[in-house]
Write a structure and sequence with these properties.
The chain has helices at residues 43-51, 73-79, 96-104, 107-116, 118-128, 144-156, 174-189, 201-207, 225-229, 232-239, and strands at residues 3-14, 17-28, 32-36, 58-63, 66-67, 81-83, 162-165, 193-197, 210-215, 218-223. A hairpin with a 2-residue loop joins strand 4 (58-63) and strand 5. The chain is an alpha/beta fold. It folds into two domains: 1-80 and 161-241, 3-Layer(aba) Sandwich (Rossmann fold); 90-159, no CATH class. The strands form two sheets. A six-stranded mixed beta sheet has the order 6-7-8-3-9-10, sandwiched between helices. A four-stranded antiparallel beta sheet has the order 2-1-4-5, with helices on one face. The two termini are 34 Å apart.
Length: 246
């Protein structure tokens, strides 16, 4: 598989604070990768830079061979990158069906939706995430686990090649997390390249075959979860000196 995402010497400064510092990595098409690091490590900023919600201070981002550095979010979506957010976002008073229909009308979404019709395509997506029985209700009355699934459904509607999941398990119960894990696995099995962050390391590191670790905006390690989990810098960042993951 060829490289789908290449991040080279990425740096983002907010005044005197350097949130991401000379950060580089590559993701191949079809990969399933986790991005880990303690709170404040710079994970969400990396996602914001890739998806166009922040402009880098320096460095380059290439997607499918195209330089997307500093490109506007809607253009990046139309190239094939979709994302979710730590804080759930939705059109609160539209139905779930309408929420998912909107991204189905994007340039890439229409490549699929024009064959079925946008609402029919949106319905199939809601079915795939287990929400089709709630298609006619608004998100404001959904439990948190369903809101997480709705976020993913909206991202799927844009017909992405690369899906960025920012803390998808945040606020979920154990049962809700298990359901979401099966959904994420299915998306990857269906051919979507997955790049995700997570605070619950045991959960994330049993899900993905590869993790990239960062701390204070800098690259620490890249490799299989068990190997990265033994990295001394990462252990100290999470647990303090002498700590170890159970």
């Amino acid at each position: 598989m060829g490289i789908i995402l290449e991040v080279k010497n990425l740096t983002k400064k907010f005044g005197g604070l350097t949130a991401v510092n000379d950060f580089s990595f590559e993701i191949k098409r079809g990969d399933f990768v986790g991005l880990i690091g303690p709170n404040g490590a710079g994970k969400t900023t990396v996602f914001n830079l890739i998806s166009g919600f922040e402009r880098p201070s320096s460095g380059k981002i290439r997607f499918a061979g195209i330089d997307i550095t500093g490109m506007r979010p809607y253009k990046i979506v139309n190239l094939g990158i979709a994302r979710t957010f730590q804080l759930v976002r939705s059109f609160k008073f539209l139905t779930l069906l309408d929420n998912v229909t909107v991204p189905c009308l994007s340039n890439r979404g229409r490549q699929v939706s024009k064959k079925l019709g946008a609402e029919e395509y949106a319905s199939t997506i809601l079915a795939s995430v287990g929400l089709v029985d709630k298609a006619r209700i608004p998100p404001v009355i959904l439990p948190h686990g369903d809101l997480r699934k709705l976020q993913i459904a909206k991202a799927i509607g844009t017909n992405p090649e690369l899906l960025l999941l920012d803390e998808p398990y945040s606020g979920l119960s154990h049962e809700e997390s298990e359901v979401l894990t099966e959904l994420i696995k299915k998306l990857h099995d269906d051919g979507v390249t997955i790049f995700m962050t997570g605070h619950v390391l045991r959960e994330l590191m049993t899900l993905v075959p590869r993790v990239i670790a960062m701390h204070q905006g800098k690259f620490i390690a890249d490799g299989p979860p068990k190997e990265v989990a033994n990295n001394k810098i990462l252990l100290e960042a999470y647990l303090g000196r002498g700590g170890e993951f159970a």
